[in-house]
C-alpha cells in the first residue's frame, strides 16, 4: 500500500505541478487511472490525445523518475509537458538495446518496426534473426559504445535502453545529437508478472495498447492457472540454486525473481528467508554446509552435461543432488549465433517458466508437459 500511495502521490504531484506551470489555455484533461497491476517500475496514464509514461525505477537506488509523453499524431499536449521527451505514436522506426524486448515486439507483431540493435548476435529468435539477415535490423555497436553516426543516419523515432546508474555518458551523446532516448527498467522488476507487464510500455509506443492488454491478460491467466495446479501441494523438496563464479557462489535472495518462482512452484528454497532482492555472494563452504543434502539443484550458466559441470568445479560432486543426478539448467539452449534463449524469452513468459519449475518439483500434476526452458543434466 505504501508503494501504491507513493506512485499515486508522485503522479498527482506531477500533474498538479504541470497545471501550475502552464501559461496557456491548454490544460491537462481528465485522465484514466494507471492500469499497471504488477509492475512497480512504471505507470501509464492516458489523456485525450496523449499518454504520460513514468519510469520510476530504471536502476538501483534511482533518485529521480523519467517522464515521457506519447503523443497521438494529431494530439495536442499542454505547454507544461513540453519539457519532457515527447514521442509521436505509433512509432515506426525503433531501436532497442536489450534482448528481453524482442519477444514483446514479436508478440505485438511489430518486429518489423525494429531497425537497430547493439550486437545482434545476442538475439536468438528465428523471426528476428531473419530480419537481421535481410538487413532490416542493423547492428548499431555495443551498449556502452553505440555507433552514433549510424544511428543519426538511421533516425529512429525512439531508442529504448537501460542503465545501471545515472552516469550513462552514451545517453548524453545520443540526446545531444537530437535522438530521443527512453529508459526502461524491466530488469529491475522482481515479480514474474511485473516483468511481463512491461509489454504495455512497448504497446503504448507502438499504438497497440489493446493488443498489449490482451496478451498480458492471457499470460496472467496462464500463470494463475499454473498456480492452481499446486495450490494444495506442500513444498517437500529442498532446492539449491546457482553455482560458483570465480571464488563466490551467488544465491538468489528471498525477494528475488528466482525465489518468487520457487515459492510459487511450491519448492523449499533453502535461502527463501534471505532478505532482499538480487543475489548474495557466499563462499562454497557456507553453501555446502546448508545445501549438502538438497534434493534438487538448479544450476545456472551454459552447462549442458553433468561432466561439464564437474569440470567447472570438482567439489560439486560432494552434493547429494549431484550424486542423485537431480540437476537442472534453464540456460543451456542457445540461439543460432550464441544468444541464450532463456535470457531473451523468460522475462516475457513467466507462465512457461513457472510450469517448468512445477514439472521439476511436482511432475505428477502435469505428466504430459514438456519443458520450455529447463533441461535435466545427464
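-> sequence recovered:
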Amino acid at each position: 500500500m505504501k508503494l501504491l500511495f507513493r506512485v499515486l502521490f508522485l503522479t498527482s504531484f506531477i500533474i498538479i505541478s504541470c497545471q501550475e506551470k502552464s501559461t496557456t489555455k491548454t490544460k491537462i484533461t481528465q485522465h484514466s487511472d494507471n492500469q499497471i497491476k504488477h509492475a512497480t517500475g512504471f505507470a501509464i496514464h492516458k489523456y485525450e490525445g496523449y499518454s504520460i509514461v513514468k519510469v520510476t525505477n530504471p536502476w538501483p537506488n534511482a533518485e529521480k523518475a523519467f517522464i515521457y509523453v506519447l503523443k497521438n499524431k494529431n494530439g495536442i499536449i499542454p505547454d507544461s509537458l513540453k519539457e519532457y521527451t515527447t514521442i509521436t505514436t505509433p512509432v515506426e522506426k525503433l531501436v532497442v538495446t536489450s534482448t528481453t524486448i524482442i519477444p514483446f515486439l514479436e508478440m505485438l507483431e511489430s518486429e518489423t518496426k525494429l531497425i537497430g540493435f547493439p550486437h545482434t548476435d545476442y538475439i536468438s529468435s528465428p523471426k528476428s534473426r531473419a530480419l537481421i539477415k535481410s538487413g532490416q535490423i542493423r547492428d548499431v555497436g555495443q551498449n556502452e559504445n553505440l555507433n552514433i553516426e549510424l544511428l543519426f543516419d538511421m533516425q529512429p523515432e525512439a531508442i529504448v535502453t537501460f542503465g545501471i546508474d545515472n552516469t550513462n555518458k552514451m545517453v548524453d551523446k545520443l540526446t545531444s545529437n537530437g535522438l530521443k532516448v527512453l529508459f526502461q527498467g524491466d530488469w529491475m522488476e522482481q515479480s514474474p508478472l511485473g516483468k511481463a507487464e512491461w509489454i504495455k510500455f512497448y504497446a503504448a509506443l507502438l499504438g497497440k495498447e489493446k493488443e498489449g492488454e490482451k496478451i498480458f491478460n492471457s499470460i496472467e491467466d496462464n500463470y494463475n492457472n499454473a498456480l492452481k495446479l499446486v495450490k494444495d501441494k506442500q513444498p517437500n523438496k529442498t532446492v539449491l540454486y546457482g553455482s560458483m563464479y570465480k571464488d563466490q557462489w551467488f544465491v538468489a535472495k528471498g525477494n528475488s525473481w528466482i525465489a518468487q518462482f520457487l515459492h510459487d512452484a511450491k519448492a523449499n528454497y533453502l535461502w527463501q528467508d534471505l532478505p532482499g532482492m538480487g543475489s548474495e555472494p557466499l563462499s562454497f563452504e557456507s553453501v555446502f554446509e546448508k545445501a549438502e543434502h538438497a534434493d534438487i539443484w538448479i544450476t545456472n550458466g551454459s552447462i549442458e552435461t553433468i561432466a561439464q559441470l564437474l569440470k567447472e568445479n570438482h567439489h560439486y560432486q560432494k552434493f547429494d543432488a549431484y550424486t542423485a543426478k537431480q540437476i537442472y539448467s534453464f540456460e543451456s539452449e542457445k540461439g543460432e549465433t550464441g544468444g541464450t534463449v532463456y535470457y531473451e524469452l523468460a522475462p516475457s513468459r513467466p507462465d512457461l517458466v513457472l510450469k517448468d519449475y512445477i514439472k521439476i518439483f511436482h511432475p505428477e500434476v502435469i505428466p504430459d508437459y514438456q519443458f520450455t526452458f529447463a533441461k535435466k543434466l545427464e
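The radius of gyration is 22 Å.
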